[in-house]
Amino acid sequence: MAVVHVLDGYYLAITLLITIGYQLFFFAIAFSLKFDKLTDFAGGTNFVVLAIITLAFSGTPDARQIVVSIFIMLWGARLSAFLLFRIIKTGKDDRFDDKRDKFFPFLGFWIFQMIWVWTVSLPVTVLNSPNITQFPQPSFGTGRDIAGVILFVIGFFLESVSDVQKYIFRSKPENKGKVCDIGLFTISRHPNYFGEIIIQFGIYMIAVSPAAYGYVTGAAYNALSATVLGAIFLTVLLMFVSGLNLQERPGAKKRYESGNGWESYKTYTERTSIMIPFPPQIYVHIPTILKRTIFLEFPIYVFDPAKHADHRKVQDREAEEGQRDRQGSTEQSGAQLLDGERS
Question: How far apart are CA 185 and CA 274, in angstroms?
């Protein structure tokens, strides 16, 4: 089968146009019908679409192209299927409560999703492109290939299993408000994020092998090496934009101010690594400086009640709880007095 040349030699333009069209199609449905259930599905399946198209365009793909394409398709398909299942169960996505009826804010999310899909797909897109496949390729099975496969398998296990464990935990009424500290969450507060990150670095490690071993040279070498941007972008996204940054300190603040399991959550954070899986029996004794550096628990994630809590909310809650306690004591005393009179 002949290689297909479309717009540019790296398939960057065609994949961008496909992504824009794909996301705008689902955006039109979501905005018109106020329908949340297709949003994450559109993101995950877009990876599958790009991988299939670029692999088909590449002519006769080699083993490395097939492996990285299948890997990103597996990841995208699993992610979209799980998120679709979850949103069907929950009914709506709270992220869009302030955007669903506003055209441009809602469109802004979809534009960001376009950037996410296109950027994270770069290693597969470029590896499958004519400017790379024109060079001789190393046989699949290099040290980088093996390391990449291992990273992908570990990451896929961490992400998929932890997603299921958290869903099952939260679906039980008796666990409402409790800290999810079961399964993989005993060794990491966000094992799914860690898994997702090493999945992308694993895919990149496999995809970059032709450049790393000197088979691909010149501008193509630079292009293939630069696709690490996809894994870096995802890491920055999860650590500083829409992942840990929105869950760690805000989540702790909410628990502290509401009094909802704050002490148990505080204990959990002290003994459990924020992302890198690690035995809690050891982590709890690790010096703070190492937790804030090597273990990635940066100060921006840490909640300090003295600095970050709204103490007016805490005082109002404590006053309300005190009033309920006093009412309860009064009612109990009245009941005891009545019982005494009857006897």
Answer: 10
- C-alpha span between 29 and 36 (Å, rounded): 9
Q: 210-230: per-residue pLDDT in tens?
A: 999 999 999 999 999 999 999
Q: Which residues contact 99 (CB under 8 A, 6 or more apart)?
A: 105, 106, 108, 109
Place of tokens 């869903």: 167
Query: For the ranges 87-91, 150-154, 302-306, which has the lowest average pLDDT?
Result: 87-91
Report pLDDT digits (tens) over 88-132: 887 776 776 667 777 888 898 899 999 999 999 999 999 999 999
- What pLDDT was estimated at residue 180? 93
Helices in the chain by DSSP H: which ranges? 12-33, 39-57, 63-90, 103-120, 122-127, 130-133, 143-171, 191-207, 209-212, 218-226, 228-236, 244-258, 262-271, 280-283, 288-291, 305-308, 311-342
CB 149 within 8 A of CB 206: yes
**Number of C-alpha atoms within 13 angstroms, CB side, residue 195?**
21
Q: What global pTM score does this model have? A: 0.89
Q: What is the pLDDT of residue 177?
A: 86
List CB contacts of 222: < 8 A, sequence separation 6 or more: none
Q: Which of 132, 149, 151, 155 is nearest to 61 (CA)?
A: 132
Query: What is the DSSP secondary-structure string of 62-103?
Result: -HHHHHHHHHHHHHHHHHHHHHHHHHHHH-S-GGGTTTTT-H
**What's the rounded Cα separation, in Å, for the pair 300 and 246?**
10
Ramachandran angles phi, psi of 8, nearest 5°: -145, 165
Nearest to 127 by CA among 137, 141, 139: 137
Q: Coil, strand, or helix at residue 248?
A: helix
